[in-house]
Amino acid sequence: MKLLESLCDIKATSGDESAMTKFILDYAEKNSSSWKTKPEVISGHGFQDAVILVFGKPRTAIFAHLDNIGYAVSYNKNLVRIGGPKGESGWKLVGKDSQGNIECTLRVKWLWADGNKKEELKYRFSRKIDRGTALSFKSNFRDKEKTVQSPYLDNRLGVWNALQVAKDLENGIIVFTTYEEVGGGSAQFLGKYIQEKYGVKQALISDITLATDAIKPKNGVAISMRDKGVPRQSYVRNIIALAKENKIPYQLEVEDAGGSDGTVLQYSSGVWDWCFIGPPEKNYHTPNEKVWKVDIKAMTDLYRVLMAKL
Predict the structure, then answer these.
(1) How deeply is 45 buried, as exposed, middle or buried, from its count of CB atoms within 10 A (0-12, 13-18, 19+)?
(2) HEC profile for 210-234?
(3) Percentage, residues of the chain above pLDDT 90
(4) What number of other Cβ atoms are within 10 A of residue 89's Cβ?
(5) CATH code for 2-68+141-309?
(6) Predicted pLDDT of residue 258
(7) Looking at the DSSP assignment, which residues form a beta bridge with residue 224?
(8) What are the residue boundaries of the structural domains of the chain, listed by start?
(9) Torsion angle (degrees, nearest 10) of CA 169, 170, 173, 175
(10) Is pLDDT of 113 > 90?
């Protein structure tokens, strides 16, 4: 959990992921010599802040997005959402501008204008914050016996999962994508690159889903049969069969909304098989995201099986 805590401490709002990129590159450099297969690392010019790790002779790629939701400072102390964060007055936001470090407070107010209810988001701070500054939820990592709770488990936990799988991975690709929370779709050009260079046409989306009345914590990792996008069902059924065969706890998710790097791959010009697989979390897109450790274990166990057998 120390690695997960370190990941959650990093602030990387969509479009400003460079701190996470640096962490991934440093982590791979320091640790990859002890992994089962030392990967080729692809990043830098032409890849923006994304990172690709290539192991052996890959057949399947894991996609995990590096960015987090947050707020951008606009005019007159107003804030603009980055992605879809929830908002409650009193939540602490942090960032940095030309004048120094920032720890301010979110203020949420509802106004009526022309007969419509409108949400007003502002910050409270001792000075004006530079226009365009990105603000993220203040770190608050809570490692309990059965759960972990923190801002930005979505998607630091997906990144953590990919790094756990990397230790024993012989053949595969791990793709760390950017600006997923705003639908930017770096998965498209990254998918095109690995498909053309390595012939990889199947993907697993290492991300976090919502806990609902149907997808409950402690019941295993969620295998999404569909959300806004609809993956090829024969591929999904093969994943379900491997989970069942290896006795890994899972639950099937069927939704008509929501999206991920998988949806972006489906909208690309390439032919992709993909499946979103991740644990359910409570308090989605808040400073108090909460995931159960039994579901985290099921996630990593299933990814290890799938990367070896798909």
Answers:
(1) exposed
(2) ECCCCCCCCCCEEEEEECCCCCCHH
(3) 93
(4) 12
(5) 3.40.630.10
(6) 85
(7) 253
(8) 2-68+141-309, 70-137
(9) 20
(10) no
pLDDT in tens, 40-55: 999 999 999 999 999 9
What span, in angstroms and rounded, lies between the C-alpha atoms of 145 and 165? 23
Angle at 239 between CA 238 and CA 241, to 5 degrees: 65
Cα 308 to Cα 229: distance, rounded to the nearest angstrom: 26
| Token pair listed for 91 | 């939540």
| First-residue to last-residue Cα distance in the chain | 28
pLDDT at 231: 96
Question: CATH top-level class for 70-137?
Answer: mainly beta
Instruction: Evaluate whether 2-68+141-309 and 70-137 have a shared fold.
Output: no
| 3-state SS class at 124 | strand
User: What are the Cα distances from residue 291, in Å, to 89, 178, 210, 218?
Assistant: 24, 23, 10, 9
Task: Report CA dihedral (196, 274, 244, 248) to the nearest 10 degrees.
Answer: 90
